[in-house]
């Protein structure tokens, strides 16, 4: 990955090129912004460029350093993510042991003129954050620290104060839809819908495209219409729960003979798939409501005109203020799911709040 391949983050690229050219690179940067806008990809491209043996405005991609980073064998690029335990199950945060192991690794000196880049992928546990703070207070010479997070409030203010913050913005819909058409062969109308659905996140757009979004959209249209026609008797929560399970069928959680660790890992994977499916459903419902609001207020074009026409009829008696309340609830429910809230309870809350 190089800067040339990163979508919609030209401002950040220009910032780092100027900082390096002027000799003003800081020792630590905090990358913030919504999920899927390219923070992690940009951090890896930056590391590759910093460590490139023949850098110009971008990494060359051909030197020993670039090839080693691409293959995952670089001694100069350290990428920390939540580790796996002894049973092979991935933890939910970077733990303090990972930072302590990093301290030992950073104790080895860097040759004169060389650099090392350390990338932290959030989430970072509280104890790990405190251990990281010590590194940032007294950084070993020649090391550049990059911290990527979509929840900056979860990190201590002391870490913020020791990093230069770089904000990554949502990507324009036109750029996302164009990339989907060019690289995924998606039809123009579908690409525009996915771009609107992703709300500035290329990562989300790709994930939705791979998740049977059309079938989900059509079934959600039916569910929303059924609830609107008969709000007292239509069990939207039951219908939505069935749709989520249909798209992310839970795998057998029972222990397999001689393979208890594999069973646990498979079960956790199935939970992640269910959560992702629930977030996709909430995103599409939120887009329905957003389009209705925008159409009423200023006649804006809908991402899905067919859905707008159908739901506009069954929701014509619902006030715009109420539609906005429903939209805000759906967005809040997605935020809860992102923080690992119980899927079923969150969906129930979203539909009755």
Structure report:
This protein has 15 helices and five strands. By secondary structure, it is of the alpha/beta class. The chain has two domains: 3-167, 3-Layer(aba) Sandwich (Rossmann fold), CATH 3.40.50.300; 211-352, no CATH class. It has a five-stranded parallel β-sheet, with helices on one face. Strand 2 (77-80), helix 4 and strand 3 form a beta-alpha-beta unit.
Q: What can be said about this structure in brief?
A:
By secondary structure, the chain is of the alpha/beta class. The chain folds into 2 domains: 3-167, Rossmann fold, CATH 3.40.50; 211-352, no CATH class. The chain is built from 15 helices and 5 strands.
Element layout with pairings:
Layout: H1 10-21, E1 28-32, H2 39-51, H3 64-71, E2 77-80, H4 96-106, E3 116-121, H5 126-137, E4 143-148, H6 157-161, E5 164-167, H7 173-184, H8 188-198, H9 202-209, H10 213-229, H11 236-247, H12 260-298, H13 305-314, H14 320-338, H15 343-352
Parallel strand pairs: 1-4, 1-5, 2-3, 3-4
Helix pairs in contact: 4-5, 7-8, 8-9, 10-11, 10-12, 10-13, 11-12, 11-15, 12-14, 14-15
Outline, from the CA principal axes? elongated
Count of DSSP strands: 5
Strand order of the largest sheet: 2-3-4-1-5
CATH architecture of the largest domain: 3-Layer(aba) Sandwich
**If you compute it from the alpha carbons, what radius of gyration comes out, rounded to the nearest whole angstrom?**
23 Å
Count every helix, treating DSSP H or I runs of 4 or more residues as helices.
15
CATH class group of the largest domain: Alpha Beta
SS-based class? alpha/beta
Into which percentage range does the β-strand content fall? Answer: 5-15%
Low-confidence stretches: 250-258
Measured distance between first and last alpha carbons:
44 Å
Order of helices and strands: HEHHEHEHEHEHHHHHHHHH
| Count of discrete structural domains | 2
The CATH topology of the largest domain, please? Rossmann fold
Provide the CATH superfamily of the largest domain: P-loop containing nucleotide triphosphate hydrolases
Calculate the mean pLDDT score and round it.
Answer: 85
User: Percentage of helical residues?
Assistant: 55-70%
Q: Which sheet architecture does the biggest sheet show?
A: 5 strands, parallel
